[in-house]
Amino acid sequence: MSLKQIVSLILFAILVLATVSCSKQDTDKLADSGQKAMPDVSDSGQEAVPGVSDSAGQNEPSAEAADPAHFIEDIDYMIYVLENNFALFDVAYWARGVDILALAENAREASLREEDLSISDFHHILSSAFEPLNGIGHFAIQGYYYIGITDDFDDPRLELILSMDKDQLQEFLDIIAKEVGQEHADRMAGFIDAGDYAGMVWLMNLLNNMPRNDRTENIKTEIIEESKTAYISIDSFMRLSGSQEWRDDERQITQFYDEISDYEHLIIDLRNNAGGYLNYVLDLLIRPLIKSEISVDAYYFTIHGEYAAKMTSSPLKIVNDGFSPVDKELRPIIEMLEAYDLPELNMADMERMVYGYRAQVNAKPRKLPGLESHPAFEGNIWLLTSGMSVSAAQMAAWIMKDAGIATLVGDTTGGVFGGTSRTTVTLPNSGLQFEFDVFYITDRYGRPLEAGTQPHHFCRPGMDALETTLALISEG
User: Around 17, how many Cα atoms within 13 Å sit in the side-chain half-sphere?
Assistant: First the structure.
């Protein structure tokens, strides 16, 4: 996915964001469980921060938050939250080579070097310092242009939008004009000028469901060898169920399967797929290709700090697209380890965990509309993967390998998955926000999905995944 596409998706996303206070009772519980305690500003020798109460993270940014010490406190709070809530904290290091504490130190040093540090400057420092962590468990420092609005429109990022300088505002509006039309950019400019939060929410909701002007072809098909080998690539699963884009993709997939129904080999290429919606994976990719219901086991673990706990009070209440809980209640980590045989589980990672539960991805066969045969294809299925196959594409590779649907060829997938229960945290002084997934999820062997799914066949020397697959096919 290009940077332009990422910016566009961010611009048009509407999230309901929750922040949770860090009460003394919560801190005591964390201390009892061996988790890191929240940094105490009063003991740090720093001057008290205007507008910041004991419920850190719930305040709007102070208009005078230009003292570097205030931003250092934000960094400390960010690390406190990650250590106590981000279940993939250790996986980031051993699987991706990202030392989060070192990133924080880089951010501190950069902040102290600057004079008259503005919120915009601090955002740039954070974004640059934590860039290596981007995507791991969907971690992201939300963009300076990002609009995320709570139900009562009381959100510090709106103030950032309203405080953009002339050039920043024009860049923001130019993107809207290019994506969906100048009239909508003009309307947004009017809402911003008037400080009309309700109008901004209404328009963003409208824009979220409009087709983009830069829409590119998502699916490509090719007949590699007549009556024998067919190829299809899917670049994104970012299609809302029932949308025009979804229907277009479904029609194209159906027509292709109808054309190749008697072929021997189907190659599905997800090497450039950065994910999207898991129901796209299930309904358009997996379910049309299976003869009977499949169930794939997954194991969820959580640190259960105050932000994670808000999202994980019960498996039955957890929003996880496509996953169904087998355990109906959270189970203590010791009980999880005794109940389930997970031979590849990294026990060092489990030292940080508090609770867990077992879940499953269940999928029943689905006949594509207008297609006479089912399954849609009954020959050999090959799935091409790479480190760019992330998020929902990671899920597709994992499920199709685990269920025996396809033979994977290429490189280990890129992970980017800690569940769809994602939390957003507001830094107490700058009002900037960051988000991350709250779960550590493993396959049936205990390998974290964030570490990626390994293919059955890695690329042969001097060959890419497609060339390797064709060589395997020719060798029988």
Answer: 25
Are 375 and 262 in contact by the 8 Å Cβ rule? The answer is no
CA angle 407, 233, 254 (to 5 degrees): 95
Domain containing residue 300? 219-475
Say what the pLDDT of residue 357 is. 93
Max Cα separation, the chain?
A: 75
pLDDT digits (tens, 9 = 90+) for 57-74: 333 444 344 678 899 999
CB atoms within 10 A of CB 358: 17
Average pLDDT, the chain: 80
From CA 370, how far away is CA 372, in angstroms rounded?
6
If pLDDT is split at 50, 70 and 90, which confidence band does 144 have?
very low
Q: Is the pLDDT of residue 204 over 90?
A: no
Q: Which residue has the tokens 């922040």?
A: 19
* Inside any domain, residue 168: no
CATH number of domain containing 342: 3.90.226.10
User: 8 to each of 3, 132, 138, 212, 472, how far by Cα in Å?
Assistant: 8, 21, 17, 9, 40
Provide the pLDDT for residue 212: 57
- 256, two tokens: 């292709």
Report if residue 379 sits inside a domain: yes
In sign, the C-alpha dihedral spanning 345, 348, 350, 353 is: negative
- Give the number of domains in the chain: 1
pLDDT in tens, 115-143: 788 888 898 899 999 999 998 998 988 75
Q: Which residue has the higher pLDDT, 376 or 4?
A: 376
Assess if residue 226 is contained within a domain.
yes
92 with 100: CB under 8 angstroms? yes
CB 353 within 8 A of CB 303: yes
Phi, psi angle pair for 221, to nearest 5°:
-125, 155
Query: Token match 């396809």: residue?
Result: 406
Using CA atoms, how far residue 94 sits from 88, 89, 307, 451, 459, in Å, is 10, 10, 24, 9, 23
Segment (H or E) for 393: helix 392-402
Residue 324: strand pairing partners: 360
Long-range contacts of 160-165 (CB under 8 A, 24+ apart): 160/119, 160/431, 161/192, 162/192, 162/195
> Where is average pLDDT lowest: 85-89, 218-222, 302-306, 379-383?
302-306
- Average pLDDT, integer, range 302-324: 76
- Can you name the residues that pair with 363 across neighbouring β-strands? 294
Average pLDDT for 443-457: 95
Question: Is the residue at 109 inside a domain?
Answer: no
CA distances from 82 to 19, 294, 303, 434 (A): 14, 35, 10, 10
